[in-house]
């Protein structure tokens, strides 16, 4: 099956052309064409993503990326050879989502092929299937961490999901970016915070500034990051100056607390639900310190298999949307239709 996939949920415009073969649990994917334009340079001066500006850029980028992707594959725009068009329907920034949805509708209608709407968060989950080489065993637990979402999801099979916990306010990626702004770092600030934190750890000294791990003693699996962000704000306000050493110390203490929260909640979920597979995906899954701490869980859960996406698939991308569309087809959840609406708050169990 050949799938043309489109992703426009936030500030990446992405188009991919995939060939999907095989059945579950061993589907295989070949990326025949893949194009992506990041809007980070445009939004950087504003310190975050502006939805209407993102929409405008998606409208400009989509025709260019389609042309580029099809050229890479070696087919014409009028004879694509695709069997289906897949598109992110939500969650995300609604103006941005609508741009992708409308563009996908036009293509599916023009090429007379099915249009498959995909849930962006399920896309992150199944991004680990690309060139995996291993069998995902169920039940599984997924820690999905990005700029807009922080969720613990339990799956009994390829089509049955239950949200065990989610953030009550800021997502962890959002908190990283907000703390970066407090330290005078450019957007996107998450990787910069992690870099400073790593520099401080390499000095082998304990930070004198510490932050409480959010929700550590709660009896549920929810997350919260607004309080941690506020603690950083008050700390910065009390300081007479913010030199490089202090920035490193604050970044390290913030990352320690933020990551410990993710790991502890994941550990609690593993203890209560006995998953055989743990998937960690989304933009924050590229965080090196998080990967180290998650991998340490394998010493406590001997039979646990842990999967992370390839680094290039941690960010928003169209490849994961194409992969998920194929999983939906194999599990009879594709139900192609031209009557698709974008939904900024789309829940995990809906497409």
Short description:
With 351 residues, this protein is α/β, with parallel strands linked by helices. The chain has ten helices and ten strands.
Structure description:
The mean pLDDT is 92. This protein starts with a strand and ends in a 21-residue tail after the last helix. The protein folds into two domains: 2-126 and 313-330, ATPase, nucleotide binding domain (Nucleotidyltransferase, domain 5, 2-Layer Sandwich), CATH 3.30.420.40; 136-309, Nucleotidyltransferase, domain 5 (2-Layer Sandwich), CATH 3.30.420.40. The strands form two sheets. Strands 3-2-1-4-5 form a five-stranded mixed β-sheet, with helices on both faces. The chain has a five-stranded mixed β-sheet with strand order 8-7-6-9-10, with helices on both faces. Helix 5 runs antiparallel to helix 8 (244-273). It is of the alpha/beta class. It is built from ten helices and ten strands. Helix content is 40%, strand content 19%.
List the helices and strands and how they pair.
Blueprint: E1 2-7, E2 12-21, E3 28-38, H1 40-43, H2 51-73, E4 84-90, H3 94-111, E5 115-119, H4 120-126, E6 140-145, E7 150-155, E8 161-166, H5 172-182, H6 190-201, H7 226-238, H8 244-273, E9 277-281, H9 288-296, E10 305-307, H10 319-330
Parallel strand pairs: 1-4, 4-5, 6-9, 9-10
Antiparallel strand pairs: 1-2, 2-3, 6-7, 7-8
Helix pairs in contact: 2-3, 4-10, 5-6, 5-7, 5-8, 6-8, 8-9
CATH architecture classification name of the largest domain: 2-Layer Sandwich
SSE-based structural type: alpha/beta
CATH topology of the largest domain: Nucleotidyltransferase, domain 5
- Beta-strand fraction estimate: 15-25%
User: Which strand order does the major sheet show?
Assistant: 3-2-1-4-5
